[in-house]
Amino acid sequence: MIQKQKRSSIKLTDSRVLALRPGPSVLRVWDSIVSGFHARVTSAGTKSFCVTFQRADGKKVNVTIGDCGSWSTEGARERARELRKLHDDGRDARAHVQAERKVHDLTDLVDLWRLDYKQKLRVTTQASYESILKTVILPALGSRFVKDLNYEDVKTLHRKESRDHPTNANRAVAVLSRLLSIAEKEGWRPFRSNPCGQVEKPTLKPRQRILSASEYARLEAAMLAQIDARKLDGAVADWVRFLAMSGLRKSEALGLRWVDVDLDRNTMRFEEHKTSDQAGTKVLPLNSHLREILQRRSINKLSAYVWPGLGGKHPLVGLAKMWGRICDTGQKEGTNLVNLTPHDLRRTFMTTCTELGYPAAISTAPVFLWTPIWGQSPERCP
Fold first, then answer.
1. Phi, psi at residue 340, to the nearest 5°?
2. Torsion angles phi and psi, residue 8, rounded to 5
3. What residue spans define the domains of the chain?
4. Which of 74, 52, 76 has its CA nearest to residue 66?
5. Hey, what CATH topology would domain 106-198 get?
6. How many helices (H) and strands (E) does the chain have?
7. Which of 198, 225, 341, 347 has the smallest C-beta neighbourhood within 10 Å, fewest atoms?
């Protein structure tokens, strides 16, 4: 009679698990302390802790505890003991783990946030959260269990995103911290276990870019060159001018609807805005140059939006690429438009108003920067 060879086992430790290397097939290294507990290494190099049970009918069942990067060996071993006790008590340990994981992965936490918390934020803040979730957090951590997320996970996420987008990295940690605070409130994590506060986020130096009159002239010249080359729509150029002479945020200008513009009363109003000390509707007066732009835009109203996108149901999109082309054109002509952003127009507006002692809400002060070149080619304005 041929005897089945006994499976070899060792006491698993963190160092031994770290030293495991992938082979041509799945490698399982069994623990000598807890029966069925083992480390599994796939041919792709993925390491995870598992525990295997044998049912009364002889069928073996494998349950994954978690990846080795998130669990310590001793912590995974203790979890294996808990699951083995469930199995010995006649309960289905795998079904128990699956039911537990269903409500604990980060994707489900995001769904909960969207259902119960998202609507409490401003529309623009909602969009900012969704962008961070879609591009940074969910691709990296979406399948992870909420209870398993630790300092190393958050630090790795921040470090990776900081390489190219340091501001975005800080925002990602802030959004993740908010989600994990919700998890604590819902009982998905222990109280005060949020690891995001432990991550050291560098203080980013605020931008100080203020445009001069000559830079405004270069920006206008670059836009006109793009229009002449049929690479830029005149509406986009008007949007840039509107930002420069209103001090509005990009989202405020893009979301402006004709129903919110009153040319008779010379005002524009905003239901959604970020003015922290002003609740409800914000009403701003129009200076003469803003009024001129709006009158020109009102001749052919194609949408409810002042600056509509294709189809007219939504505001313009793709402005980041258009702005990049404008700045690139300026660079080719030897002008200094490096690292210029649309928000720099708002900063320049506010700074100029402050320096000249004008109230920002009613000022036409920054117009003098643009006026010398504004009047040179009115026939080229759309």
1. -80, 135
2. -80, 150
3. 14-100, 106-198, 213-380
4. 76
5. DNA polymerase; domain 1 (1.10.150)
6. 15, 7
7. 198
For domain 14-100, give the CATH number: 3.30.160.390
Burial class (CB in 10 A: 0-12, 13-18, 19+), 23: exposed
Which among 96, 77, 74, 1 has a CA at the least distance from the CA of 36?
Answer: 77
pTM over 0.70: no
pLDDT in tens, the chain (382 residues): 444 445 678 999 999 999 999 989 999 999 999 999 999 999 888 899 999 998 888 888 899 988 888 789 999 999 999 999 999 888 888 887 777 666 578 998 999 899 889 988 877 788 889 999 999 999 999 888 898 899 999 999 999 998 888 888 999 999 999 999 999 988 888 888 999 988 887 776 666 778 888 888 888 888 888 898 888 888 899 999 998 888 888 888 888 999 999 998 989 998 766 654 455 678 888 888 889 999 998 888 889 999 898 888 888 888 888 888 888 875 555 556 777 888 888 888 887 777 766 665 544 444 444 444 444 443 344 4
Separation of alpha carbons 62 and 84, rounded Å: 11
Residue 297 token pair: 């835009």
In CATH, the architecture of 213-380 is: Orthogonal Bundle (1.10)
